[in-house]
Amino acid sequence: MELYAKIKKSSKYYKYQGCVDGKPFFFRITKIEPREEYSCLGDGNRYRKSDLNFFVKLGEKQFFPLS
Questions:
Q1: How many domains does the chain have?
Q2: What is the span of the domain harbouring residue 47?
């Protein structure tokens, strides 16, 4: 099972890094560093947990949201 995320529309990063061709996309979280403010690593960037919605990938294109 792998952890994925999408940048929230409310994040200031959404319009710069959260969309491809105007649509939000999933990216895999490769590492979480709990003591850092920008603790989630994925898509070659660091993100705050508050800027992301998290998902578990269930199938090829199936994602289950974590709340």
A1: 1
A2: 3-66
